[in-house]
Amino acid sequence: MDERRTVKVSKYLSRHLRHQPERIGLTLDEGGWTEIEALIAAATAHGFPFTREELDHVVATNDKRRFAVEGTRIRASQGHSVDVDLGLPPAVPPPYLYHGTVARNLEAIRAEGLRPMDRHTVHLSADRETATRVGARRGRPVVLSVDTGAMHRDGHVFHLSENGVWLTRAVPSRYLRFPAGH
Question: NAD: is it a keyword of this entry (predicted)?
Answer without folding.
Answer: yes
